[in-house]
Amino acid sequence: MVSDAYDAVVVGSGPNGLTAAAVLTGTGRRVLVVEAEDTIGGGTRSADFTLPGFVHDICSAIHPLGVASPALRSLGLERQGLEWVHPEVPVAHPLDSGRVVLLRRSVADTAAAFGPDDRAYRRLMEPLVSHADAVIAAVLSPLRPPPLRDLPVLTRFGWDGVWPATVAARRRFTTDEPRALLAGLAAHSVRSLGAPSTAGVGLFLGLLGHAVGWPLARGGSQAVADALVAVIEAGGGSVVTGTRVRARSDVPPAPITMLDLSPRQVLALADVQFPARYRRALGRYRYGSAVWKVDWALDGPIPWAAPDCSRAGTVHVGGTVEEVAASEHDVARGRLAERPFVLVAQQSLFDPSRAPEGRHAAWGYCHVPNGSTVDMTARIEAQIERFAPGFRDRILARHVMGATEFEAHDANYVGGDISSGQVDLAQLVTRPVVSRAPWRTPVPGLYLCSSATPPGPGVHGMGGWHAARTALADAGEVLENPSR
Questions:
Q1: I need a surface site. Which of 85, 287, 298, 325 has the fewest CB within 10 A?
Q2: pLDDT digits over 358-410, tens only?
């Protein structure tokens, strides 16, 4: 280690751990971040996976939560070189016969393509988007009472969002296009779309598309982690990599120790003596479905049958609401989907630094049962080929990561679960235990700051911010809420 005199030590360098460290260095504390892997970033790493000159995002690629996050905005990452690149269209969702649904930044422009569902879409989304700051703040600070002025819009969001996505799509809309759009957005929940509250995931991600966009980080998602490290080092903090922590005694003693770890890794720490009740609660934490991901080096852009798909950074490939729901239902029941719902990111269309001139890099994944080892590459590529004939002919090289490879890459992704735990109503605000301050453990000075704490998964850093705020409060200091 660099030194044995620290005010705080953070174990793990995912976006939450780095945010916690950045916040603590901002209070004048000397902070050490310890990362098990050779590169920092957790889910925000990039690598040269396929061929020289191609930059691929290992896990997260598109960052609506990053640009919306009050915590990340408060840290001024743009001053450290982070640049958000906004595709013209946040999300495209192709349908058969060359049709495509576009989620545009404007609610009105999006709705205008929905014909008889124009007014229904505007009635659903306009009230939420006009109060986007309130909804974002409530979702990213789920245990903080909202201001009274925000209760009407939050009540509306809660009522519209508590439904299963399939029910909400059919209640609200009469045509395929808006139904498919909501289904694709809701499928980010990694749950059956017949499950309660999946509509809320779709509404929130749609709101983000309208209010802040779905950007990518220029140069790769690694740029997000690098900017956070720059903030930490500018504040006098240090980061060390290639150091796996198997016990609390593996790191220097400090008044504050933050764990950017999921419950399974927390319980594996050899010398941390939790009360039996807390240990049992962590042991009951549930992990969700996994992913199978492919990165492609291409000799040209993806040849979508609907050319407007090339205007979007993210393309949801899966067809109608019925098809998307069938795919996610299979996975939720522990089965593999024959025609999986595939999330595609085509970063190099908007960031030329991702591939050599004239070439392109793309990224896609589908959901699979936790721990699955069945190769889904052919099924993923068949789905893309369905909506982009000739796609396979453009593949120069591919790199595949299954569930076990994801866990090997990041131990927090248990069984390939990139959400670090099932995200459902029962485990949304009770991550990882039922507590008014779930970032605080019963061991004095020991805190949790991973995606297994509220507000859950995503590159937003709010779990780290809440954990740092809790630790500071325990030390008699008050960390003001970051501005919206």
A1: 85
A2: 999 999 999 999 999 999 999 999 999 999 999 999 999 999 999 999 999 89
**How many C-beta neighbours within 10 Å does residue 378 have?**
9
Going along 169-249, which residue ranges are E strands?
A: 216-217, 238-240
Residue 226 has pLDDT above 90, yes or no: yes
Give helix 198-211 / helix 165-172 axis angle, nearest 10°.
60
Two tokens, residue 291: 């992913």
- Amino acid letter, 261: L
Sequence spans of domains, the chain: 8-83+217-286+420-474
**Residue with token string 């945010």:** 19
Instruction: Report, as an integer, the average pLDDT of 9-20.
Output: 98
CA distances to 370, 406, 449 from 16, in Å? 23, 18, 6
From residue 247, how far is each of 11, 219, 373 by CA, in Å?
Answer: 11, 35, 30
Q: How many residues does the chain have?
A: 484
- What is the sign, positive or negative, of the torsion defined by CA atoms of 285, 286, 292, 294? negative
> Is domain 8-83+217-286+420-474 annotated with CATH 3.10.180.10?
no
With a CB cutoff of 8 Å and minimum separation 6, the contacts of 355 are: 53, 54, 55, 297, 298, 348, 361
| DSSP for 274-342, written as a single string | --HHHHHHHHT-----EEEEEEEEESS----SSGGGGGEEEEEES-SHHHHHHHHHHHHTT---SS--E
Q: Which residues pair with 401 in a beta bridge?
A: 293
Asked if residue 224 lies in contact with residue 15, where contact means CB atoms within 8 angstroms, the answer is yes
Residue 411, token pair as written in the block: 């131990």
DSSP SS3 for 80: helix
> pLDDT-based confidence at 477, cuts 50/70/90?
confident
204 neighbors 135 (Cβ within 8 angstroms): yes
Report residue 126: phi and psi, to 5°. -60, -45
Place of tokens 């933050």: 258
Angstrom distance (rounded) from CA 56 to CA 360:
10
Residue whose pair of structure tokens reads 């759009």 in the numeric block: 181
Distance CA 316, CA 342 (A): 6
Query: Which residues have C-beta within 8 Å of that of residue 109, sequence separation ≥ 6?
Result: none
Provide the token pair at 315: 């393309």
Its pTM stands at 0.95
Helix axes 118-130, 132-140, angle to 10 degrees: 70
| C-alpha–C-alpha distance, residues 267 and 246, integer Å | 10
448, 272 Cβ separation under 8 angstroms: no
